[in-house]
Specification:
By secondary structure, the protein is of the alpha/beta class. It has three domains: 3-94, Up-down Bundle (Four Helix Bundle (Hemerythrin (Met), subunit A)), CATH 1.20.120.140; 113-310, P-loop containing nucleotide triphosphate hydrolases (Rossmann fold, 3-Layer(aba) Sandwich), CATH 3.40.50; 319-444, 434 Repressor (Amino-terminal Domain) (Orthogonal Bundle), CATH 1.10.260.30. It has 21 helices and eight strands.
Length: 445
């Protein structure tokens, strides 16, 4: 996420923190480089200019503070201003813990909360609807989905399949739009959702290849008829300034309450995320960071600013672990590690599956502070998720007795395991060596 921008800004700021004294020329040179990198990342020119001017104004005083490292002071100024670009308030920047007022949805006090998702075709709107439903289900919000796209072939069927995947009811799908307008379809589906006692209802509206008057008129009529509590734009985070123009167009035509940026796990340069709030004033509510239904994260501008500057996001990592890892399995594993016998390969397999559930390894490393993340990469540790699958295949090719006591694995057994897992004998040997080293390390700890 924002890898290129993060590396570029990190290099500029490291030059500042490595000096004991900063002149105004040093600050000007650094800000010129930061300005160039932001524009290369497709950040809005107006937003970039305002950012540089605010940092320059504050940095002149920070550079003259003798008791405090001036480089560190300017790093903090840059981080705070990036957080403000992303939508952080002064209260959020001053808070010791993360404040999430901007990302929390507005829920109805009586009746179901209606959330309208709008956007262009190809932005990932239908998938995002399922991801949001999955998240709301985990939060005990009893979500339901409404398929309101009567134009795209098989749109209703796609949402039904996704609904089954996340265990959420879908209304208005499969032919419900035949002979009925979108407003009538959604009204009927809402009645069905209320009968099913859904507390939140997400409407997947139709998209177009571009913003047009017909599309806006349809969405405006739907908004007027249903009075949604949230109108969220689903925008492709890889489109840069196009996402900003899209947000402005939808906001002027329909009236938005927030934005969900998708595909930030790809080659997103960061321009959309860093510009959209500054240009439209809209908060970014969630970001999509993967293809799986659980790959939707609440957007926290302060944390995201830290990640962009290579400072990591350990809090998000801890929250991800707490929400994903099986506490009972983790407790059993800890008890086994502390026992005299120590962990065996069956326990190792359990730990491996817990790690796989957390998501792609590169994303997890991205949540670590810059120094720790760099150390992991330089250590030669494999960050390829396929490697974990290979290790799992090797362990699953062993008998229960072999997993319990790897010492019985002679040459013929290792050859059988290699053939059974489709890997080489060398990979089997390497895994066993690494397991023994980890076992000794855990025993000493």
């Amino acid at each position: 996420m924002f890898t290129a921008l993060s590396e570029q800004l990190g290099a500029v700021l490291r030059r500042l923190t490595g000096r004991g004294v900063l002149s105004e020329q040093d600050v000007s040179d650094a800000l010129r480089d930061i300005r160039r990198h932001l524009l290369e990342a497709d950040v809005s020119f107006e937003v970039t200019r305002g950012f540089v001017e605010r940092v320059r104004e504050q940095a002149v005083g920070a550079a003259k503070l003798a008791p405090v490292n001036p480089g560190q002071q300017i790093v903090k100024l840059v981080r705070d201003e990036i957080a403000r670009m992303l939508g952080a308030s002064d209260a959020e920047l001053a808070a010791k813990g993360p404040a999430r007022a901007a990302t929390s949805l507005n829920y109805a006090s009586v009746g179901p909360t209606l959330i309208l998702l709008v956007g262009l075709q190809g932005s990932g709107k239908t998938t995002t609807a399922a991801k949001l439903a999955h998240r709301l289900k985990r939060e005990q919000k009893a979500p339901g989905l409404i398929a309101a796209d009567i134009y795209r072939p098989a749109a209703g069927e796609q949402l039904e399949q996704l609904g089954k995947q996340v265990g959420v009811p879908v209304f208005g799908a499969v032919g419900s739009g035949q002979g009925a307008g979108v407003v009538d379809l959604v009204r009927g589906a809402l009645r069905g959702a209320e009968k099913e006692r859904c507390r939140t209802v997400i409407v997947d509206t139709a998209g177009r290849s571009q913003v047009d008057a017909e599309m806006m008129a349809e969405l405006s009529a739907l908004k007027t008829a249903t009075k949604p509590h949230e109108v969220l734009l689903v925008a492709d985070g890889m489109t840069g300034q196009d996402a900003v123009r899209l947000a402005r167009g939808f906001h002027e035509g329909v009236g938005l309450s927030g934005v969900i940026l998708t595909k930030l796990d790809g080659d997103a340069r960061g321009g959309a995320a860093l510009s959209i709030h500054g240009v439209t004033g809209l908060p970014i509510r969630f970001v999509g960071v993967g293809e799986k239904v659980d790959a939707l994260e609440p957007f926290d501008p302060v944390r995201m600013a830290g990640r962009i500057l290579g400072q990591g996001d350990v809090v998000s990592l801890v929250e991800k672990v707490a929400a994903t890892v099986d506490a009972d399995a983790a407790a059993k594993l800890e008890k086994k590690v502390k026992s005299k016998a120590g962990m065996d390969l069956s326990d190792f397999l359990v730990a491996l599956k817990q790690m796989q559930a957390l998501g792609p390894l590169k994303q997890l490393v991205g949540l670590l502070p810059g120094g720790a993340a760099k150390a992991v990469k330089q250590s030669g540790a494999a960050l390829d998720d396929k490697r974990l699958k290979h290790v799992e295949a090797i362990v699953l090719s062993m008998t229960p007795a072999e997993r319990a006591d790897p010492r019985i694995l002679n040459g013929s057994r290792r050859l059988r395991i290699a053939k059974g897992s489709g890997r080489s004998v060398q990979e089997v040997n390497r895994l066993l060596e690494q397991f023994q080293q980890m076992r000794k390390l855990l025993h000493r700890m």
